[in-house]
Amino acid sequence: xxxxxxxxxxxxxxxxxxxxxxxxxxxxxxxxxxxxxxxxxxxxxxxxxxxxxxxxxxxxxxxxxxxxxxxxxxxxxxxxxxxxxxxxxxxxxxxxxxxxxxxxxxxxxxxxxxxxxxxxxxxxxxxxxxxxxxxxxxxxxxxxxxxxxxxxxxxxxxxxxxxxxxxxxxxxxxxxxxxxxxxxxxxxxxxxxxxxxxxxxxxxxxxxxxxxxxxxxxxxxxxxxxxxxxxxxxxxxxxxxxxxxxxxxxxxxxxxxxxxxxxxxxxxxxxxxxxxxxxxxxxxxxxxxxxxxxxxxxxxxxxxxxxxxxxxxxxxxxxxxxxxxxxxxxxxxxxxxxxxxxxxxxxxxxxxxxxxxxxxxxxxxxxxxxxxxxxxxxxxxxxxxxxxxxxxxxxxxxxxxxxxxxxxxxxxxxxxxxxxxxxxxxxxxxxxxxxxxxxxxxxxxxxxxxxxxxxxxxxxxxxxxxxxxxxxxxxxxxxxxxxxxxxxxxxxxxxxxxxxxxxxxxxxxxxxxxxxxxxxxxxxxxxxxxxxxxxxxxxxxxxxxxx
Length: 547
Hints:
It is rod-shaped, with a radius of gyration of 45 Å. Helix 12 (318-331) crosses helix 18 (470-515). The protein has two domains: 49-236, Rossmann fold (3-Layer(aba) Sandwich); 269-546, no CATH class. The mean pLDDT is 85. Strand 5, helix 6 (154-160) and strand 6 (168-173) form a beta-alpha-beta unit. By secondary structure, it is of the alpha/beta class. It has helices at residues 2-16, 23-26, 29-44, 62-70, 126-138, 154-160, 183-192, 205-214, 225-235, 238-296, 301-315, 318-331, 333-340, 350-359, 373-392, 400-434, 437-464, 470-515, 522-546; strands spanning 50-55, 88-90, 103-105, 113-117, 141-146, 168-173, 199-202. The two termini are 13 Å apart. A seven-stranded mixed beta sheet has the order 3-2-4-1-5-6-7, sandwiched between helices.
């Protein structure tokens, strides 16, 4: 049990130092630190002496009972009430105590017991009540003293209620006389207040004290006093003392954790509601961002054609590949021209930067800024709603600027990942198919066959016939130009189709990337996750004490 208690205390110490955004837990840290300190103290003294407190209203005979147990007038008694102004500690010699400033007598024959007589619990003197409260917090066992005239006073209950379940309780009716007893009514009241008193003694402390001072044998007029002494001397063994101390520590631990559980239970619906709102707003913002990107990123189809054409130029093979490379260089000159000028900027639009990413995924200079004022205004409006909900639930929302910055960075990161990943893969695959060797050989077949045939005609005419007329070369060049034009047009048309398919696939990739959870409200998510982790810790501690 001690090892388990140590691990739980360490967890509670961590919770007691909490300074995070959960206001409900922060409000409990001061009280939690005090309870953890008390648990530490009790954990270190599980094998120590048992500290007993005599508690009760004025005139019930607490000091007389202490004198009777000691067999001497060590505590002042008086018919004028109250007469105990400070705690009186009755302890065995050699016992090290930490009750500085209190009166003490070190001659007890009760080896493992320390008995403390307290001021009256129903006193109007605040200092006296504070002393009683201090003794109660340091004791292990409470001997609740009462008489037939005073056993239901609210002042005593108000001191005991905060320690409910944290202290073992023994009831002592100190001024017993005659057959009547308050036992049943008193125990019922204790049960109604949530206390348990497994031991009950009905004694006449004054007669027991007079008998001890006179040296006479015990008499029936003392009622259960002899049994009370037997309980203190024989039944409170070292093993039972350890059980009482462990029970008190377990009671304090249970109350501490149950208080935390009440806080966690109160926060749980608010957490779930905030999480649901956050997820709904995340889906809504993903839709807004996609519409914004559709207007800006996919509004220029020719840039995707440029990306596919440039990739094909890098992979082109054969005769037609060289011609296509030349034609592509001429065709893309307007897009490349700004970069060739000192004052130009080839990436001054989001589409141009996207095309640059598709062609060169390692280019860090092609980072895209996709957020517009429209998107940011929508985000700030949703963030205000979520922040108000979190504040009402007792959770501190993050700074708005931090959340907005992380939102913009996350959109850009996801878009760049989609463009550098699956979107670029589509462009590369399309260019690879359109420039593969079978396509290159097929496209080269007709122009090369015509060039070969024309060359054959020229060589044959040179050796066997008159020289060819100029019109032959003009017609041959025209036919070759037509063949090349048709094939270049065909490759360009295939490149446009591939670009259209790549652009269409990229739309799907971007939509998927934006709909992945965690697009926006990242700081808010961290706060909710942190609070959920603390509530899970509290629930785990609760399950431990219940099982």
